[in-house]
Design a protein that fits this description.
Helices cover about 35% and strands about 30% of the residues. It is of the alpha+beta class and about 100 residues long. The chain has one domain: Alpha-Beta Plaits (2-Layer Sandwich). The two termini are about 10 Å apart.
């Protein structure tokens, strides 16, 4: 399995908007993607830092999101709220409990 980790920074006052966008728009879109296994949205309400972790059944499924433009489409949903450019890492999941 593989994971895509995207880290963003938003104004702390926009945390609830960020959570709503993820839950109402991004999550349903993820569930439609082949190879999607699960996701987490982590954050710090004081600093406005957010981390999205999506899990995929294979490296091919993970890469397909970038190649098709899907990942960027999801990130763009947050663009009015973002402070700076998001960072992204693609990692292999060694252990899932």
């Amino acid at each position: 399995m593989f994971a895509r980790v995207i880290t963003v920074q938003v104004d702390p006052g926009d945390i609830d908007k960020t959570i709503s966008i993820y839950g109402d728009d991004v999550n349903p879109a993820l569930k439609q993607r082949e190879g999607f296994v699960g996701a987490l949205l982590l954050g710090d309400r004081k600093s406005g830092k957010g981390v999205s972790i999506t899990m995929w059944d294979s490296e091919e499924s993970l890469k397909a999101g970038i190649e098709s433009g899907f990942t960027q489409e999801q990130v763009d949903k947050f663009s009015p709220l973002l402070k700076g450019k998001p960072t992204q890492e693609d990692l292999e999941i060694f252990v899932k409990v």
